[in-house]
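Hallway conversation turned thread

IA: we were arguing at lunch whether anyone had actually written out Radial spoke head 1 homolog end to end. Turns out nobody had. So, for the record, here is the sequence (255 residues) and right after it the structure tokens. Reply here if something looks off.
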Amino acid sequence: EYDGERNSEGERHGRGKARLPNGDTYDGEYEHGFRSGRGTYRFRSGAYYTGEYLQNKKHGQGTFFYPDGSKYEGDWVNDQRHGYGEYTYANGDIYTGEWFNHNKHGQGTYDYKDTGSKYVGGWVNGNQEGEAEVIHLNHRFKGKFLNGNPVGRGKYVFDIGCEQHGEYILSEQDKGEEEEEPSLLVAPKWKASEITKLTLWTPHGENLPSPREASLPSLHEVSSEVFSAERDAGEEDEGSREEEENKDQEDQGEE
């Protein structure tokens, strides 16, 4: 069903309202039969998008409200989150930064609501990767990440005025002679080397003043474990939303 303006060729053109056979509705602008311009598309699932369209696809600035209460507000290209935007998760976590082909990609900040911790740094295809800083309530970690885990040399900086240098290493896993590859992924472990006064961070090595051997496993194991757990919790629900959204987007083609 369509109620709205048409051009001389009889195409939907201008302002109009439409109800699709699957129960979805659209209220907004059309050009030559396509949703183009600003409009609001409501899915029968309860999700809805309000923003800019180009030839039936989300394109430009827009906000998508998901059924679970999460939302994305920012740039869209060809129906994909692409550019710069903010994603608020159902649990209150927030990612603000760059997107590429629907994934977090580039530079961005992820805020964990429950703990107040924050990841600031690089992302690649939805995973934390590259140089980054993880900020906790009374200390922070500076280093590199790969596939969502810290890797290599880095340092913990404490608000009391000192910092601990070290590196994240993959612990060796015992394997039988018949096994060619480890059967389980092993989380990297923090290996402390020294505590110093505050220094400038460089990922390729530092000149450390008067180092002394030290180990603060409890602080750092807790930091890395809390961070990894929070990351997993913040990401776990998005896959189901994507699946539902993709289905809904396919339904649009039936109009």
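OS: looked through it. The two ends are 10 Å apart (CA to CA).
IA: good, adding that to the notes. The first strand starts at residue 2 and ends at 6.
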